[in-house]
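[Discussion] Sanity-checking designs against the backbone

I'm trying to build intuition for which residues belong where. Below is a structure token string of 232 positions. I'd appreciate it if someone posts a full sequence so I can compare it with mine line by line.
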């Protein structure tokens, strides 16, 4: 997550120089935000983690999670409410990979589970912007999303006893973040950084109620961060 944040800061500094942070810049795309409807697309990166809730204090310590960088791609539809607020629909495809380490096992085949998730994400977001300042405009964005996890294994009859980690297919998240609209000569470019926090319990317990992997877990929820680069 630190690398993604540093990438966002570096991009912000570069664009700040390009878009003329001075008192009287040349105004690009002066009427860009006047349309009732606006369209675009986004590309980006993500890092997803897990938050575990335990029934009892684990004897061997907390479950470990190793994260890796995934990617995002999707479309944008925006409805203008007024000068400062817009409603956005951002359907997208999010690929993420996590490795879970269960303590107390000596065999790596039992201790490690590689969790690959492909989410089709459907967020409804409210974007709240400041007044445009030359060729840039900061904003906050937040809302709720439904995420379909195509790699959940929820319907599998196998479980961790046969190396299959299962999660729920249908999930619901909160999203909250901030970004900046940069108005270039030809298009509006908007880098943003956003946190995602799962609402529902995503764990599908093992068939055995005394499973060494899931019997002590009361819940498991996704949390993560992603950076999107939007073109409108």
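Best answer:
Here's mine. Compare freely.
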């Amino acid at each position: 997550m630190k690398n993604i944040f540093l990438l966002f800061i570096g991009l912000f500094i570069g664009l700040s120089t390009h878009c003329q942070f001075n008192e009287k810049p040349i105004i690009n795309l002066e009427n860009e935000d006047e349309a009732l409807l606006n369209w675009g697309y986004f590309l980006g990166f993500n890092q997803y983690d897990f938050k575990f809730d335990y029934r009892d204090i684990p004897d061997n310590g907390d479950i470990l999670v190793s994260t890796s960088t995934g990617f995002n791609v999707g479309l944008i539809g925006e409805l203008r409410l007024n000068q400062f607020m817009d409603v956005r629909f951002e359907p997208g495809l999010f690929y993420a990979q996590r490795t879970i380490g269960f303590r107390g096992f000596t065999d790596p085949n039992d201790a490690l589970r590689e969790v690959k998730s492909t989410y089709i994400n459907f967020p409804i977001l409210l974007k709240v912007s400041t007044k445009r300042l030359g060729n840039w405009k900061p904003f906050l964005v937040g809302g709720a999303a439904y995420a379909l996890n195509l790699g959940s294994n929820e319907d599998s009859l196998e479980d961790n006893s046969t190396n299959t980690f299962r999660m729920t297919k249908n999930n619901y998240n909160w999203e909250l973040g901030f970004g900046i609209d940069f108005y270039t000569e030809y298009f509006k470019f908007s880098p943003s950084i956003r946190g995602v926090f799962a609402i529902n319990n995503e764990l599908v317990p093992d068939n055995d109620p005394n499973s060494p992997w899931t019997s002590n877990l009361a819940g498991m929820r996704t949390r993560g961060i992603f950076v999107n680069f939007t073109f409108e």
